[in-house]
């Protein structure tokens, strides 16, 4: 096969010209921004995925077009490596250089990637592409496919799918179907059969009721949940809201990010019995949080930290009862509620580590354990089992029937990446086995009140951090001022970091009381505005602010 790199330039010039000279950054989970600026980025990512596939000996590389939790006008791209992981960090730099060169320099840049990485351009390559349901996603999907075609690669389009489904397809194809069939039906079948076998016909137990409300964030998760319901043998009774039909916009006033950050139910929440389990996922269904309202109408959140602790406690007990010895560990980020970390360390006695935001960091760290549980507080996470753990569990099944539950759980869990639907089915399985309702679940520990703010600044990159984003290094002096503010509050903790998916600086604060938390977040927000070049509107002063 002969490849003419001139074709790449010709496509770029004619169909996907670069229309901005603003530098484009590789963010927390790939490139993200306003959809109208992304055509050239997508075309080039098609080119990159093809080169990456050739570099990895023809393995399938995945490209998912989505801006996940961001608002509807945004879009983005997530790249999936052969084992279902996010793109390797050294290639993030290659990708960044590729999207930032001018159209005139594109051909030369592609030649450089080929040379630097000794890629055999005549070898075969396979790229899988999927997208969320934003109206601009089909246009961007075509741009990715054209990038693959420009280098004579093989492209397979999956249409509208969740991000975790794309990860599943990539791994299934690369493991020659050992992980499952790389089709939508294969995905449903793997998860539903494990879930229904784990229920074993027992739909209700103790305080556990077989009903929940599912907020699909007007995104892909809603559509796919409806497909799940069609295929499930009434093993779970689900009402789907925010289905993305009519005027509902993706992630607007609904979905996991809204519920977590605003600490309230989606605006369109129907009235339900107090203590009904409600679930919110984000636009591409890789995050999940639970919530409920009590009999006084008060809202309660069960976020990623709660899911992590529930799963860790359950797996620990199960592993013990199977009489096997596996090293279990939990990975969190700075956003983890201090009370959850205390509970994990002091009650569960499971080792816990803290890494920077982004599932790529959590996933990597979790691989150090036999059973690595990782969850961000925003509901993004999963569990990974090492090959050793899998072989020990498989061996245990021959002598201890309880180990069969562990084997089925491995099938239910999408180990490749956080998967909102798989995570939800896992939580439902655990609650059902324990006979727990949301009251039992939330009573395991008390969350510290916490608050997140988004602060607009001229350039968010003026903020740099260290120690898993818990310490701000620049602008110089900001951390000292944060420390001073924090020292005035009992159990106070706060940090700031630039977002990698939105053009904002994020502020997190927690303290012993709600009032203190509001005041602390306000104080730290003001510090960011003052010392990091704030451009946004004035922050709303909490009622009891002493500033
Ligand atoms: C992405 C990442 C998550 C991260 C989130 C927020 O989520 O996959 O790991 O927590 O961005 O990142 P930041 O605070 O840097 O904006 P998603 O669901 O948007 O893909």
UniProtKB/TrEMBL annotation:
Q: What is this protein called?
A: Phosphoacetylglucosamine mutase
Q: Which organism is the protein's source?
A: Drosophila lebanonensis (Fruit fly)
Needed co-factor(s): Mg(2+)
- Active-site residues per Swiss-Prot or TrEMBL entry: 68 (phosphoserine intermediate)
Q: Which gene name does the record give?
A: LOC115624738
Domain Alpha-D-phosphohexomutase C-terminal stretches: 479-520
Q: Which residues form the Phosphoacetylglucosamine mutase AMG1 domain?
A: 183-289, 303-436
Entries under PANTHER family matching the protein: PHOSPHOACETYLGLUCOSAMINE MUTASE
Where in this chain does the record put each Alpha-D-phosphohexomutase alpha/beta/alpha domain?
Answer: 60-94, 110-175
